[in-house]
Automatic annotation (TrEMBL):
Upper lineage: Eukaryota, Viridiplantae, Streptophyta, Embryophyta, Tracheophyta
Database matches in InterPro entries: Ribosomal_eS7 (IPR000554), Ribosomal_eS7_CS (IPR047861)
Species annotation: Crotalaria pallida
Name the record gives this protein: 40S ribosomal protein S7
Family: Belongs to the eukaryotic ribosomal protein eS7 family.
Molecular-function annotations in GO: structural constituent of ribosome
Pfam families: Ribosomal_S7e
């Protein structure tokens, strides 16, 4: 017997349809419309999500995928650029209080396409996810150091340090990092200050707290984001 791969939500929906059929045609028609709409949304959203190893997308990832699909089909500015773009994953990260950020991971090979439309895309997604900052980061893989004596070379771009640096650069887009400084605390721990180009202050200042929370979540490191002090 082959193992069923049907989505649990679809099976539940079909069960509701059968139950509704026993209650009368009008109720059945209403529920049928709702269920079919949900099924259509599930499949349209998945056009914008490519998971590794056939993993099932989460309900939140389907919501993000649907938002991208809707933008592709309703926003004339983004339609052509979004056509060939899709995401790997999406999660919500706690920032402070009840605030949350939407962190979207996109394929590394598509990062240039996403960067090209970064400001416009983030602006539209933040409208859809009202009250939540949206962060777009390329998916990168960290490779462990080769065993001693091994002839295998590890690319520098796959080291822990390089990946964390790249995450920082993606995180603060559209701003560029213009400086870094490490400060040591009394207890021996350290915190890094990252200085951002003030030219993009209007697009990034409201996200400084979000940048710190997301970077801590992804790297385990504490960072403070600031703008360099300029002389009047």
């Amino acid at each position: 017997m082959t193992k069923s791969t049907a989505n649990p939500r679809v099976l539940s929906a079909l069960t509701l349809l059968l139950a509704a059929d026993l209650c009368g045609a009008s109720i059945f028609e209403e529920i049928e419309f709702c269920v079919l709409s949900a099924v259509v949304k599930m499949y349209t959203s998945r056009k914008k999500i490519h998971k590794d190893k056939d993993a099932e997308p989460t309900e939140f990832e389907e919501t993000v995928g649907q938002a991208l699909f809707d933008l592709e089909n309703t926003n004339s500015e983004l339609k052509s650029e979004l056509k060939d773009l899709y995401i790997n994953s999406a999660v919500q990260v706690d920032v402070s209080g009840n605030r949350k950020a939407v962190v979207i991971h996109v394929p590394y090979r598509l990062r240039k396409g996403f960067r090209k439309i970064h400001v416009r895309l983030v602006r539209e997604l933040e409208k859809k996810f009202s009250g939540k900052d949206v962060i777009v980061i390329a998916t990168r893989r960290i490779v462990r150091p080769p065993k001693k004596g091994s002839a295998v070379q590890r690319p520098r771009s796959r080291t822990l340090t390089a990946v964390h640096e790249a995450i920082l650069e993606d995180l603060v887009l559209p701003a560029e990092i213009v400086g870094k400084r490490t400060r040591y605390r009394v207890d021996g721990s350290k915190i890094m200050k990252v200085f951002l180009d003030p030219k993009e202050r209007n697009n990034t200042e409201y996200k400084l707290e979000t940048f710190a929370a997301v970077y801590r979540k992804l790297s385990g490191k504490d960072v403070v984001f600031e703008y360099p002090i300029t002389e009047a």
